[in-house]
Design a protein that fits this description.
Elements: H1 3-11, H2 24-48, H3 54-77, H4 82-98
Helix pairs in contact: 1-3, 2-3
Length: 109
């Protein structure tokens, strides 16, 4: 499945279509689901010494799917293709790497 296909299909499952809710609902959902990913990673180290079992991998995959869904809705509502986000991000990272700025902090490295 391509980014474009996912973006189109996932939008069909969005239930918050009222005008004025385009950004805050999926943004809050993204924060919540990101927290669930963090919880999965925490428990991976707390309970399994960082060893990723098939069961934990599947559980993590499911939470990452939820993160992807919310991220996709924000992008779609803003009129931004996921492919352009991915390309822009990888271009930015390779630029930073080439210039020796891959580590550190700040948006304009």
């Amino acid at each position: 499945m391509t980014f474009e296909e996912y973006q189109k299909e996932s939008k069909k499952t969005a239930t918050y279509q009222e005008k004025g809710r385009e950004f805050w609902y999926p943004a809050l959902g993204l924060a919540g689901e990101s927290g669930e990913v963090i919880e999965k990673v925490k428990k991976l180290f707390r309970d399994d010494n960082g060893v990723l079992s098939d069961e934990r991998r599947e559980s993590l995959k499911n939470e990452l799917g939820d993160v992807l869904w919310y991220l996709t809705q924000i992008a779609t509502d803003a009129g931004i293709p996921l492919e352009s986000i991915a390309k822009g991000n990888i271009d930015k990272l390779f630029s930073r790497k080439t210039r020796g700025k891959i580590t550190g902090d700040g948006d304009n490295r």
